Amino acid sequence: MFLKFLNLQWKTLTRSPMWHKNLVLNLVIGFFLLLFGVYLLMLGLLLSKILEELVPDRNQFDLFNGIIIYYFLADLVIRFMMQSLPRLTIESYLHLPIRKNRIIFYMMGRSIADVFNLIPLLVFIPVTFTIVHPQGGGSMALTWLASLCMLILANNFLVTYLKRQLGSKPWVVGITGLILIFFVVLDKLNVISISAISASGFRYLSHHPVFLLIPLIWMTGTFALHYKFLKIHLFPDEMQVKKAFEVDQKEGNRYLRSLGLTGTIFSLELKLYWRNKRTRTMIYMLPIFLLYGFLFYPQAQYMKQDGFLMFIGIFITGGMMINYANYAFGYESSFFDALLTKNLDFFKYIRMKFYIAILICTVCFILTIPYAFFGLKILLINAAMYLYNIGILSFILLFFATFNKNRIDLKRGGAFNYQGIGAMNWLSIIPAFFLPIIIMIPFNIAGHPYYGMALTGFVGILGLFFSKSLLKIIFRHFQKRKYIMAVNFREK
Amino acid sequence: MIQISNLTKVYGTQTVLDIPDLKINKCESFGLVGNNGAGKTTMFRCILDLIRPNTGAVLSRGNDVAKKENWKIYTGSYLDDGFLIDFLTPEEYFQFVADVYGLSDGDLKAFYHDFEDFFNNEILGKKKLIRDLSAGNRQKIGISAALMPKPEILVLDEPFNSLDPTTQIRLKNLLKTLKKETEITMLISSHDLNHITEVCDRIVVLHEGKIVHDLVTNQDTLKILEDYFSVEK
Lengths: 492, 233
What we know:
Distance between the termini of chain A: 28 Å
Number of helices of chain B: 9
CATH architecture of the domain at 2-82 and 152-230 in chain B: 3-Layer(aba) Sandwich
Oligomer: heterodimer
CATH superfamily of the domain at 2-82 and 152-230 in chain B: P-loop containing nucleotide triphosphate hydrolases
Strand order of the largest sheet of chain B: 6-7-8-3-9-10
Radius of gyration of chain A: 27 Å
Largest interface: A-B, 31 and 35 residues
Structural class of chain A: mainly alpha
């Protein structure tokens, strides 16, 4: 039975239209995952050497054991945000003569094969050989590793349980969070030392295999907790994590409506972004786009490289806009037919998208003006890139957005969600990111970088000047593409 | 009102629609029946310019729907869920439709009044998004939104599906009243032969994309249709 479920899951994956359409992208993602795995494995193998370099006089086993507890705490938080629940559509099985226990065991067993459970092993297993084994031999190393595996699984069951509770009993999640914070605060205030407890605890445990019972009980406990929950709640409507969105009807969009069609489309766009999970994730990412300048600007070696600064400038002032424009039509895939059959002026509709792109860029630019603190040059570069973004990049993105013809389910979250991302689409946009740098190069060689920036900004203004003609080109192109887009958007 | 000439749609090697000539007159109530895959939805999509046909054209009031877009002003349509904007509340969606068609707040109020019975207190004032409503209620929203701008042409694909019996009867009465009191041209597809013969004056049977029957409805029509669908294969 277990194998049958597994087989069905495999088919769900490989037969989904996403898999076929995005084979290239899947391969690329797979490659990076592999690369990441190799890095972790190397980290695990070399950790002993690294620790020796950094803190030569400490016992490596105790050191690692002291860190490990923080890892497990952080792991809980990261998993809670990133790990997805196994998507077994139980509706398809509940009515068949399959015992509920089997379905539950499968669901829980399936959650073990999650990447979050495998990643730590890439570090822990090599460490078992390089650090633990030399300390006390084979049986001790094995005991140690076994305890860690149990803790990984306990985290897994606990997080999947908490995630399922999020919908019906959010306070369970809140209390767990508070307990975690409580311990971290105690640790910070030096009332207790979590790392010291962890270090001596793991040391004691690895020498006395009987105490494996403690992680075992903890793991079984979390398993039982989750099992019990599933046993009671194995009904499709209770398994859903999502909550119905409640709407306050008195939302004041009178002003927007007074703007006519433009306002109507704009208010639709606002609701689209705010009421869907995937787009909301995008909004939450805004701080990342705005703040990552802090990674580079404080460092002198980057400040000398104008080309690099321009590249950062494009993404700081335009990162959000890039995301918006690229999916300008894709996010509307679920109601594209509605738009096509309504009495909607599609030129105005596309122009509205362009205005919103400008608006997003402008907000990002204004919010990042304080970067001028790191030098006036940054402000100038970002201003030039801002003009380029709104005057050139926005048009290019909107034009190529019509090639983005994968249906996107907005109800699914955004983290690790590659649905609707066409590899070819991104490849075709990449040259647009390098254009400003190409403009810059000759000026830089001639020693007049500021003229180069001015020219880039000017090109952007030129684009704005011809915006009507450029939008018409996009509009005519859209009219040709709309059938292909509509057909693909309909495919679920 | 609608003139279809030489219309074909081919997917791969399969011809899913092949209509050499079809005229739908003003004020006609045109019913389309056929088994799954007969090409009903494809035909409606061609009429609504949602699919590019391989050959031929659909003329609406003499204009090719693929070239001029003014048909949208006088055509109301609801084919499936894709015609709804599911993250809006019903009120917001109706407001959106009203705005797009340039209707006033008064028009919208009149619309709510007209459809009060049809909604049966299940649609308005619920603070729920359309995506959280049942299939039947979504269907009601789609059909009523298609009728809101008082269109001259109405295109509905299987409108009776997933409606409760009360609403099915209400919809039938609504369509019959429209037929009697306005100059609306209706294109309706259905799997329910009873409903369709009751509502439509003319019934066309599609099979594998081709028109196999074109009947004017009278007391024998239901019998003919039932015979056709029971002997087939």
